[in-house]
Amino acid sequence: MRYQISGRQIDIGEALQVHVKEQLGTVVDKYTGRPTDANVFFSKTGSEFQCEAIVHLSTGLTAQANGKAHEIYAAFEACCEKLDKQLRRYKRRLKDHHKERPQPVELSGASSYILASDSEGTESEPDSLQPIIIAEMETKIPSLSVGEAVMQMELAGAPVLIFRNEGKESVNVVYRREDGNIGWIDP
């Protein structure tokens, strides 16, 4: 498994990097046999450290967790516990869905844009109907079944997930509805 351990505005020592590799490797190996890479970011806000871990699995799923504490090791441990809980919760579903999958999930490239919002709050007519693009980036659209897409959305804690439906090769959307249920758009 590839690790990327970095600090935002703080230095990360060798001892912390070794600790993260050992602990995260133990947690991930306990529940899944094929992780591909892990990104761990440390930051400090005031007197509190924050740890964010993102683990990509070869099945196409991404597990993400955050932890906060006044000590940097405690922040990582809190993050690791949340990641452990997520992977434990989905262990049976991961095995059931991916037992028959001999190859990793296929990913398609797509463009992603961030548009400026109308922060003025005025009700006047805009000068142009073209939105202002703040950022443009590349994103990946996975090829998944509907069940895998719902599981991926829940693991990531995202309100919506766009995916290519394996059965039909069409682009679909799953999203969390206001009533708490999951919606599925299949054009």
UniProtKB/TrEMBL annotation:
Q: Where in the cell is it found?
A: Cytoplasm
Primary subcellular site in the record, as a coarse category: cytoplasm
Which Pfam families does this one have?
A: Ribosom_S30AE_C, Ribosomal_S30AE
Keyword tags: Coiled coil, Cytoplasm, Translation regulation
Gene Ontology molecular function, alphabetical: ribosomal small subunit binding
| Family membership | Belongs to the HPF/YfiA ribosome-associated protein family. Long HPF subfamily.
Oligomeric form and interacting partners: Associates exclusively with 100S ribosomes, which are dimers of 70S ribosomes. Interacts with 100S ribosomes.
Please give the PANTHER family that the UniProt record associates with this protein.
Answer: 30S RIBOSOMAL PROTEIN
HAMAP family associated with the record: HPF
Name this protein carries in UniProt: Ribosome hibernation promoting factor
Lineage per the UniProt record: Bacteria, Pseudomonadati, Pseudomonadota, Alphaproteobacteria, Rhodobacterales
Q: Which gene encodes it?
A: yvyD
